[in-house]
Write a structure and sequence with these properties.
It contains five helices and ten strands; from the N terminus they run αβββααβαββββββα. It is of the alpha+beta class and about 230 residues long. A seven-stranded antiparallel sheet has the order 4-10-9-8-7-6-5, covered by helices on one side. It has a three-stranded antiparallel sheet with strand order 1-2-3. The chain is elongated and about 105 Å long.
């Protein structure tokens, strides 16, 4: 501060006196900090000393804000991705490996709920046993309604197919079912249902609903396996 600035500051200080209630007065007029009607120099004096922020502190504060924003965006992206992660269900059935595979692919109509089909009571549900084969139901009237298409056929341990029951084929998701022997009379079944991210906004709610349905279907499948529905 040069001599002229020092002199100006002294003149301002000379005009300001403290009053008992904590306010400050300039030439007999009560003023309080932040009133905004005083000259800039007076306002600065009324505010009093301000905490000093070094350039290093400013940099840290800016980085902290940027980090918080980045973390918030990353968490939002994670939550969005989590809602479309593959749906995985694993359970065991009391049946030999070959038997369990056959019940899933050859006797689907014996355990699949009729009200979850197009014909509401199909005469059969067929997995054509080859890559490229159709998955379809045949109604009592003989009409065929496609559910999907086989993309992997590896009996008795694996079958995978595109799935679009009740939907247009463009909205198909992917199902992979594997079968692992766990002793002579027990099989572990693992179902992975994926491709929800391709459905856009419809993916998360459809995934949530399908998860509940597969839970029910796994119980029905297990009961069908235990009932020894395949005649040897």
């Amino acid at each position: 501060m040069n001599k002229e600035q020092q002199a100006a500051a002294e003149r301002v200080r000379a005009e300001i006196t403290a009053v008992p209630d904590g306010e400050r007065k300039l030439k007999g007029t009560a003023v309080s900090p932040g009133d905004g009607s005083q000259p800039p120099m007076v306002q600065e004096f009324l505010r009093g000393p301000q905490p000093y922020e070094s350039s290093a502190q400013l940099t840290v504060r800016r980085r902290s804000a940027a980090t918080a924003e980045h973390e918030a965006k990353a968490f939002a992206a994670f939550r969005e991705a989590e809602l479309t992660y593959p749906l995985v269900i694993e359970f065991a059935v009391q049946a030999p490996l070959d038997h369990a595979f056959a019940v899933w692919t050859e006797r689907c109509a014996t355990w699949w709920p009729p009200d979850h089909t197009i014909s509401q009571g199909p005469a059969s549900v067929t997995f054509e046993p080859r890559v490229g084969g159709r998955v379809f139901e045949r109604g009592p009237d003989g009409a065929e309604h496609e559910w999907g298409q086989v993309v992997a056929w590896e009996p008795p341990t694996r079958v995978a197919y595109r799935w679009h029951l009740f939907l247009d084929p463009s909205e198909a998701t992917d199902i992979e079912v594997t079968f692992r022997s766990d002793g002579a009379t027990r099989t572990v079944v693992r179902l992975e249902h994926r491709g929800w991210e391709r459905l856009g906004d419809a993916g998360p709610p459809r995934r949530a609903k399908t998860g509940q349905v597969w839970g029910e279907l796994s119980a029905l499948f297990g009961a069908a396996c235990a009932a020894n529905v395949i005649v040897e």
